[in-house]
Amino acid sequence: MAAIESFDNIYLDLSKESGKSRFAENGLGWKPAGGGEAFTLDSSNIGGAQWSRAARGYEVKILLRSSGVVQLDGFHQEDYERLSKIFKNWYSVNLENKEHSLRGWNWGKAEFSKAELTFNVQNRPAFEIPYSEISNTNLAGRNEIAVEFAGNDGGKSNGHSGTGGKGKKASAGRDQLVEVRFYIPGTTTRKEAEGGEAGSDADEEEKNAVTLFYDTLIEKAEIGETAGDTIATFLDVLHLTPRGRFDIDMYDASFRLRGKTYDYKIQYDAIKKFMVLPKPDDLHFLLCIGLDPPLRQGQTRYPFVVMQFKADEEVTLDLNITEEELNGKYKDKLQSHYEQPLHQVVAYIFKGLANKKVTTPAKDFTTHRQQYGIKCSIKASEGFLYCLEKAFMFVPKPATYISYEQTQSITFSRVGGAVSALSTFDITVHMKNGAGSSQFSNINREDLKALEEFFKLKGLRVKNEIDDDTNLIAAALGDDDMASSDEEAVGPKADRGSADEDEESVDEDFQAESESDVAEEYDSNHESDGSGSEESDVDNRVDDEDEDMDDDEGEKRPKKKKKTA
């Protein structure tokens, strides 16, 4: 057998382009066909090898002694005998022929090996997840766990994770799986979770299966505490976006948000903006962190994390760093001891560890109440709009950042027909290149002049539609006043609609023959009660009818009262 064995059109992990793979007695290597960084692996680090079907033909999966996995894909079926001899003779490792389960079942058994998580169906692997690709995990429900994969790096990776950061394999692919969820009911022991036999240790305590899976995965995938010692911890911090209370653990290269349901691990490199915003109630401060890539919670993305702190809450904190690190790596960035308001301490530590500039509201603008935040709303969501030196910022939800450089124009307008139209107005920010617009509604009318002056100071194009509306309203009101004065001059009595119907009016259908009063009671002495000759024909006719009735019925009845007009 030759001293070197070569194979063409081989893909390393999920690399976008193929390359040449060479095997020698002292190890193996791979180099992309189009040129670029080569990958080498020493023979002493090869702990095992597996042969199986894969996406581009047949794959050799190499299990490293340093708990890693290297995948070489693109071999032909006839290469098996040749590769089996290479691994046996040169690396003293058997090339195990492994068949995957092709049933398509979603119910099986998850097992933790040294380098990867394997999901088996009928004792055959359906898929494997290398620990190096897992960035985070959360308990998503009572018996459900979510496993998140590291985001891509803009496609700069060739596909191999090596000993660097997580997610280099998946980042090489055009499409990327970002999360998978497992439903794990019942209880189990730690030995069973790691693939041991059930009942091998009767004294071992049974635990909730999903919780045990979660704890084991955090340990195996080196999530959380393995990032190093915690430099600082802040407990029970209120977050407005995403909503909830989280503990903040700050490490050398990342920070972690630990909540009751979700945990997030965020690299400082992902922080693009950091803002400290005083809330208009003068009681709280908002710390807003802009992230790229954004935070994910299921299908929801959060490009900003918004924390709220009480303005008068003090804290005394000693950082968990050595004097050597303080005078070297963090010189002029951090202090060993802090005794200040909590929001200031958090801001200083984020600034020192993430090396990001802290942005505050522009000093050139304040509201009519001498505050920096403008109370307004985006659609149905109420919040506060801040004018920064280079951008607008609306918090807390939906957190919206609009750079002045991307702003085409700003329009002041009023919602037609609104009850509060005279006391509030709206701002519509139009973006350049047809990127859309954002509207901030229900802003106090007293802030109009200050905003207009600030926008002109920043060189922004402003269109004020409120003045035009005001002139039209004033003209309309003037016409109404003139019309009403003309109507009042027509007659002494104004038209009051149905109110006039309550007054007495002549009934045209009723025709009275006399204006004399009709006696209330009709009896035998009615003639003496009247005025004699002045009695009307109506009265006589009524009296005659009454006497006829008395004769017929043998008794006298009083006649009903007659109504007069």
UniProtKB/TrEMBL annotation:
Comp. bias intervals (Acidic residues): 478-489, 500-522, 532-553
SMART domains cross-referenced by the UniProt entry: Rtt106
Cell location: Nucleus; Chromosome
Chief place of localization: nucleus
Domain Histone chaperone RTT106/FACT complex subunit SPT16-like middle: 371-465
InterPro entries reported for this sequence: PH-like_dom_sf (IPR011993), RTT106/SPT16-like_middle_dom (IPR013719), RTT106/SSRP1_HistChap/FACT (IPR050454), SSRP1-like_PH1 (IPR048993), SSRP1/POB3 (IPR000969), SSRP1/POB3_N (IPR035417), SSRP1_DD (IPR024954), SSRP1_sf (IPR038167)
Protein's UniProt keywords contain Ribonucleoprotein: no
Pfam families: PH1_SSRP1-like, POB3_N, Rttp106-like_middle, SSrecog
Alphabetic keyword roster: Chromosome, DNA damage, DNA repair, DNA replication, Nucleus, Transcription, Transcription regulation
Stored SUPFAM superfamilies: PH domain-like
Record's compositionally biased regions (Gly residues): 152-165
Region (Disordered): 150-173, 477-565
PANTHER family reported in the protein's UniProt record: FACT COMPLEX SUBUNIT SSRP1
Described function: Component of the FACT complex, a general chromatin factor that acts to reorganize nucleosomes. The FACT complex is involved in multiple processes that require DNA as a template such as mRNA elongation, DNA replication and DNA repair. During transcription elongation the FACT complex acts as a histone chaperone that both destabilizes and restores nucleosomal structure.
Family under the similarity heading: Belongs to the SSRP1 family.
Protein name: FACT complex subunit POB3
Organism from which the protein derives: Neurospora intermedia
